[in-house]
Amino acid sequence: FLKGLEVLPGEESTKAIGDCESACSKSLAAVNQARVFLRTKTAEAKKYGPETQKRIAEELNAHQSRLEGVAQKVESFKKETIERKMAAMMAEVIDGLSACEKKIEVLVKVAEIFSSDNIETVSTSELKEAVEKTAVAEQEASAAMLEVRKVFATKQKEAKGPDAIAALGKLQSRVNAAQQELAKTKKAAASGEKMIKGKEVLAEEDEKIKQVEADVSSAEKKVKPGEEEAALGIEQAQPSDEDIEAIAVALTSGQKTLKASQRVVEANAAGSPAPLKASLQKLAARCKDALSKISELMTLTKDQRELVMSRAHVREGKAKVDEVETAMEKVNEAELPYLKGIEILDVKEATSTVAVCEAAAAAVQTAINAARNFIAAKNLEMKQFGQAAAKPAAEEFTQLTERVNAASAKLGQFKKDTETRKKTALMQEAGQKVSAAEAAVKQMAEAVEPFTKEGAETEISDEEGEKLVARLKETQAVLSDASSFLAARQKEVAGNAERTETFKDLQNRIKEAKAEMAKHQKVASGHEQRYTAKKLLAEASETLAGMDEEVKKATDACAPLLEEGGEKFLVATSVRTLAAALRDHMKEKALTHEGLFNDVAGGSEGISQDKFIDWLEKLPEALSREEIAFNPERRVAMFKHIDSDGNDSISLSEFKAVFLQRFTCVKEITVTEGLEVAKSKTTFKINTGTTLETIHGPQTDESNGMVRIECTVVSSGKTGFVTMQGNQGTKFIESISPFTTFSEEVDKVIEEALKGLTKVAAFFTAKGKELLNAGKEGPLAEARTELGKLRPKVSAAQDKLRKLKLNMANGKKDYAKKELAEKNAHIEARERKEAEAITGPAAAKVEAMEAAAKGLEEASKPLVSLSGADLEAFATPVAIFEEAEKLLEATTKSIEEAKASVAEQLEKVPKADPKTPLKGAMMEAKRDLQKMLGKSVAVKKQCATAMASVRAKCQSIVDARCADISGLLRKEMQQKSLSLENLFMQIVSPGDERISEAAFGKYIEGLQGEAYKAEQITLLCRHIEMGGIGRRRFEAFLQQYFVVVKRIAITDEFDINQAKTLRKAESDEVLELLDGPLKDEKVGVTRIKAKSLSDGVEGWISLKGNQGTPFLQEVEKPHYSCQAEIALERDFKIDSADGLVRTLKADEVLELIEGPRKLTYEPCLRVRGKATSDGAMGWFTARDKRGIVFAEADGKYYACTSSVAMTDNRDIKDCKVIRKLAVGELFILEEGPVEDTDAQISRVKGKTVKDDQEGWITIKGNAGTTYAEPSSKHYCVLQDTPLTKKFPSSSSGEEVRVLTKGEAMQVLEGPKEEAFQPETRVKGRALSDSAVGWITMTSSNVKPWTPYYKCKVAAPLHDQLAAEGATVVRQVEVAETLELVEGPAPDGEELRMKARAEKDGAIGWVTIKDSKGKRFFES
């Protein structure tokens, strides 16, 4: 795709696009894989010390930048590939559309005249010419548009995916635009055609109307009186009858003409351009005016005109009837041969006589029809005449009609007689044809007689066979003709007994002749088939022989190119190159051909091969012409080419022939006698195709800049100067090379051979069709089989020629490449030197870079080659690591130097642009330099891989020691009952805040004894934290945590086979390491003893399955950062407000101790009610989710179930009724129930809700009737609780009021249960003050925390917690990363932390968030 072709040829395009798509897909996959890898490694890097982490981050960032650059290139490449795919897919549409648009452009240009503002001024001839050209152009454009739409529709069906649809959408607009332009031009052309027709109508009808107007004017002069006569009182002139008749004829004809013209003019006026329409309307007005005058003249001359016209009609009618009678006389003459007494004439005479009779009868019929039509028309016309004129004429027409009818009756009889005579003549002819057929059959019998004799089965001669076949065909033709002619007579004999009898007789005779012929044919057919078959095969063989000759001729003609590779033509090109250089040399030195020859020959008559080669070898340097520096083999070949007579010596004539050039005229041009056109006379003209030759070189006419050459016309011998190329670049003559001549001749030979083979194929096809009905056996069937065997030879020959033609086309292309390569060989050699000078310095740097990379690999080999136990036992990993780092630094420097050198040298490569694209050696140099860049990238990757291997091996050692050393230290803590803080203080050197490498190594050596390996422990120390181990990292080292990534069982014992499952650890559950990791060798599984932070369960868990499935992943101890104020509570369950430890502020950090655990709640009860005190309504909580009761059903409220009286006293015998309580009325209990044993009733004292009346009522009668019972629709408030408008207890801002203890609530709805989602609870320790408690964790109030903070706003690093009065250690810059050492802790309203800068290890206090809430650092 980078060769300059926008759309490649079909198969090449498909392959290239497929390769691009495949490469793009692989590249995208690699990019995505790299992204995932970098993200993973970036996360893993946080486990290392600050310096290592920083170095890794820098390298990973560099890789990330490179990756993003590659990703952009891949995306760009993907887009270009899609565009190229669309271009290839749409190539057919685009090509067709482009061709169509060009044709439409031609059409628009041709039709410009129709859009002209002054089209009415354009002549009709010009318009006609434009219409003709437009029609042709429009036809071509429409055909092209139809083809485009067909291809477009096909592509629409094939289109899949948004890219193809979008591409088609873009093309659709072009198609629509082209269609609109075509339609617009068609419309303009149609208006032009209408203009032409209108102009033609205007001209034609104007002439007609002018003639009628002249006739009317002439009639007016004859009919109307003149001015003098009018003055004398004469109102009407007296024209003669002859004048009236002429006037009447003219006016009647004019009236018809005017009416027809008026219709035509009015029809064309509609839709015509305004100027033409006005002209046509004027013409229509003239028609009306003339018609009006004719009507007036008709009225003035009515009486005389009718009388004159009726007489004229009668005269004309008599003339037509006379013509009828004259024609009848000719009928009588035609019938004479039959009236001489001979009833049956000779066939020939009878046939000719019948033909004459039929022609005479037709003439009479025509005359009769004309006479009758005339009489009928004039009778109708004269009905409008007056009686005086019409009556006499009608009587005359009656007599004429009688004469016509009489002639018609005679004609009918004559026709009948002629028909009878014709049938008789045909029967006569049939008899003659049958006789001729019988005679032919008889001759056939004589011809086959020799073959009926004994021994006639032998092979006959070609001459005999040819005669037999000819006789057979001739007889069959005569017999067939007679049979067909007789069959056609069958209908003609019907109804005539005599002719019927004759017909039957002839039928029998022809039948007998056919039967006889069948016998003869049976005898002759075998010989005839053998002869035909033999002749056919001979003809086929002869045709094939000619075909083979044509193929051989074509093959031989192609040999110089296809077999010899066009070597002789390349030699000829070299000779022409030499001649061009020598011409310039001769011109510069004013040498003649003879002088140059003598210089080379050294005074000899000829130039020997050695002299020529020696001269030619030195010539490039002598002439300073690189293009004539030929290799030794070519110099020898050139000598042989110039030595045309092969005598091993170049003569003067042969030397001159080197300079001979031949040209062909490609554009007609004149020949002048001198070089300068302005000062020379033209001597003659040469036409296209004229051949010229010369030994001179081209010259420039300085006066006009034209290139000219002195030439001789080969055909005439005339000489003069011809312009090779005009000053505007037009070529008039072109050079004829031997290869061009050869190619033209070969093309002709191949085309002639192909035409010949087409004829051969047609011959076989035709003969095959002729033999289709030859049957399955016999000579012709055998001939058909043989032809079938020969036919593949024709196809093979055609294929061979087609292949030869294709090979020739490819050979021409290859030759052109070879020729161009040879012409440019000297340029390529020069460019190669220049290219080597550019690539050399960079190549040296690249070699040094590769050597440095190899040194890194060699240095790291002692470590990276190890594995397993050998690796764990390796004693000096730090030395190897440090050496590798130094070598990596040196190699990186070498890589950068190589890249800089390559970049510098790339700048020296010439810049390419569309006019001068980069190619050849410079392109190769650029590619080599780009490859060097690629090498630098590869070496950098190789070094990174080597260093990564070193780090990986060191990490393996660290991993192995990590478990051992952490286990030892934990064991030490358990044995000595040390806390982490105490252990840290034991190891750290006095006065230090961090454990140094030396202190750590010394303490571990004391624990390990002989197993101690100093460098491994140093490596471990650096892994824990670079620059010394701080408290937090020390704690993290000993307190290892794992997160469950896949559900796995927690067991009570290490041995899997003996262990029992305690429970299953759930995904995302966090576990604290207690012991291990240890490997269960029986099952090949590594296990740890751990404690679950969620519920404190301790047990053994597998890290990975025996198939490698991971169950646990190591993580740092979880910490959480508060995003808002959160209650820190003492207990897991929230029972009351007094369980609050304190409220955690935003940005405080909590260290996980236990959890996360789910806290579930029972549904709470909500009741909708109405306060009895003030009628306030809403929802209140009867029991909350913790089980605390806020209200319960109140037994003091009674509801009347039956009407009952309220009395003032308990004793019903001594009381007064206060009032009657209705059913449903409420009563508040104050005393009772009291049982009245005497009356056997239950009584209560209370107060009515309705009106606060106090008294006693009976709640149960002595017959068991219940008058009142405790109400279930009332609740009593036990604790203050809010009354809200909505059901959910968490509805904020919806409170009606607070219900106080003791209030009564009437139930309106409920109670209803309100369910709650479980809450996630974690137990943690605040880093600021070590406060411990439980919090409810949600996604909005806490987030995971890491001890690394990124600076968002530049801030000072202080030497103490209190910012006031503190000394600034240094300024922390934006994007710097700090690691928490202590805190976060409050300083007044500010939140501060003690941290260590990753950049330089500086330690101090910084403000995370100030008193105004401005944030300086983000975790």
Structure, described:
With 1419 residues, the chain is of the alpha+beta class. 56% of the residues lie in helices and 18% in strands. The strands form 13 sheets. Strands 3, 6, 7, 8, 9 and 10 form a six-stranded antiparallel β-sheet that branches. Strand 42 and strand 43 form a beta hairpin. Helix 3 packs antiparallel against helix 4 and helix 14 packs across helix 17. The longest helix is centred in the first third of the chain and has 66 residues. The two termini are 51 Å apart. The N terminus is likely disordered.
Which overall shape is indicated by the principal axes computed on the Cα atoms?
extended
Taking all Cα atoms into account, the compactness measure Rg is 62 Å
Chain-averaged pLDDT: 83
Helix content: 55-70%
N-to-C CA distance = 51 Å
Number of helices: 28
Beta-strand content bin: 15-25%
DSSP summary, beta strand count: 45
Describe the largest sheet: 6 strands, antiparallel
Uncertain runs: 2-6, 231-235
Helix-and-strand structural type:
alpha+beta
